Amino acid sequence: MPLLMLCGISGGIFLVVTGIIHRKFLAILMGIICCSFVIMPFIFLNKGINGEDILHIPAVLYWVLFSLAGLLAGINGARSKIKSIRNTGFIIFSVGLFAAICYQLMSMPDSYFIR
């Protein structure tokens, strides 16, 4: 979880700054989305709001959407031939996908796999 938060916040800020430098609106937008996906649960927790009641999506889908935002930024960087946006996007994608898979595996009951 700390790696996911670090990757989401620092990667999102990096995408915003690099998108501003290279004038890539999609990279700026994906950076804002990545930051907000990581920060939003803490804002909800601070306000005493259950995020799943408002968003109506499961946690795994939430982190997969975070991961897809990174993939879209990586594809945008690859098409524009900007290595920093491409690498950051693909790192966010891989870390987000790994976190979603691990979260799904941890949330399954043990008796389902062990017989």
Automatic annotation (TrEMBL):
It comes from the Bacteria. It comes from Bacillus cereus. This is Ammonia permease.
